[in-house]
Amino acid sequence: MKTCLLISGGPLDLSFAKEFLKDRKYDFVVAADAGFSVCLDLGIQPDLLVGDFDTFGREKIQTYLSDPQYQIEMHKPEKDETDTELAFRRIREAGFDEVDVLGALGGRLDHEISNIHLLVHERRRGLQANCYDAKNRIYILDSEQKNEYNFSRSRQYGTYVSFLPITEQVKGITLTGFKYPLQDKDISILNNPSLCVSNEILDETAAISLTEGILMCIESKD
Length: 222
Fold this sequence. Notes:
This protein is an alpha/beta fold. The protein has 2 domains: 4-134, Rossmann fold (3-Layer(aba) Sandwich), CATH 3.40.50.10240; 140-220, Thiamin pyrophosphokinase, catalytic domain (Rossmann fold, 3-Layer(aba) Sandwich). The chain is built from 5 helices and 14 strands. It has helices spanning 14-21, 35-42, 58-65, 83-93, 109-123, and strands at 4-7, 28-32, 48-51, 72-74, 98-102, 128-132, 136-142, 148-152, 160-165, 169-176, 182-188, 199-200, 205-209, 214-220. A hairpin with a 5-residue loop joins strand 10 and strand 11 (182-188). The radius of gyration is 18 Å and the shape is elongated. The mean pLDDT is 93.
């Protein structure tokens, strides 16, 4: 499976980013707006720069436009999409089906929630996006794409696994191999949204199945 790295424009701890990227290899690297600053700090050569660059600096980006080693897609600040959404679109158009995202969490709350919503948008279009920070990995489980998802304790990102409803209802949830199992349970944003928070994998492998709806999965560390 071809994979891609997107460095978004939100705040990012450089020490975490260096450690995260140390043993990972990507086929394509995209920087959205201020994500370019992170690339420069980390010594990463992005394959594509995209955004309005109002955070990075519209005058500053001009110095890179004539440099042939950079492919830059520059947009006006007055646009309907966020820079991250534009970057996701280009990643899909380039033929990638999975992307790891750094810098999408922990900044402005409106941007953070928007980025989480974009994970759903992209999952429905065939792109599996995983948002990482020092304590969390966030991604989407969609019953329309797949009814069962497997987990490995040796590969999970931290100790805890939580499942939060994105659609108003998520139906037929069954958890096996977890500390708190479930059998054919429905959960709702309106009634019991925190039922599946802070679970743990007991066995080497675990699984969740769902018959209808969309869940946000958060693997997290203390």
